[in-house]
Amino acid sequence: MVNHGIPTGVLDNLLRSTREFHEQPKEMRMEFYTRDCTRKVKYYSTGDLYQTKTAQWRDTLSCDFDDTSKIDLGSFPEICRNEIGDYLNRLHGLKNLLAELLSEALGLSSNHLASLECFDIQRLLCHYYPPCPEPDLTIGIMKHSDPYILTILLQDNIGGLQILHKNQWVDVTPVQGSLLVNAGDLLQLITNDHFKSVEHRVVATRAGPRISAACFIYPRNKNQSKPYGPVKELLSDKNPQKYRETSFLDYIHYFGSKGLDGVKALPHFQLISANE
Ligand SMILES: O=C(O)CCC(=O)C(=O)O
Ligand SMILES: [Fe+2]
Fold this sequence. Notes:
Jelly Rolls, metal-binding
């Protein structure tokens, strides 16, 4: 548990304005409706609709930043742009603190992970899960692990998020004013399995709407072709390298080509040991 230091008002404003965006008349939302991945701001339902067979009970506003010091808030929907800006400004300190704490937990110098240039605030997904009349027939978001370094998740008090722990789905009960930090696949890869990415899903509920905002940390554009592999300082005879090097772009390409099919992407990058 870490004190995130972000005022509750900033969190509440992001949740409220996300809800307001999604509840606007269709005409206001249509301006942003696209699946064109070159657009920085996108509004869609079920991001991987054409890769998986399952449509999911969720709409998403996706915002890409690359360099958060140069954000053009004007490109975001007016109804939530200031709230997104305020949240991102506050998230910086937390992201840097997490990079330091994780470095220290690995026995590395506190600036080690930051020096790899993969801890950047790159994308915010503002999700809206409408109340569902038949929750047993659908799902809010399918089982997956995030392909990134870290996810910082803000959720409202409706519930529905679950993580897979020892083959059992466990509810992540919302705690007001808290943020949840999930390890992603890329963190698992660079730490050679020290931090494991967590599989999770969101079940549909009759209650709602449920609002959440998932902020993804991964290398910024200029570093996305750079190879990342297990940190050399962590490897030894007892802890041999488990994964081959890959760039963020190659990883995400493989992840995206599968869609959220419930099968992890990470094993595809595993090295086969000589004894196997
Ligand atoms: O809405 C949530 O709580 C989770 C969202 C999520 O898993 C994601 O965007 O990857
Ligand atoms: Fe996720």
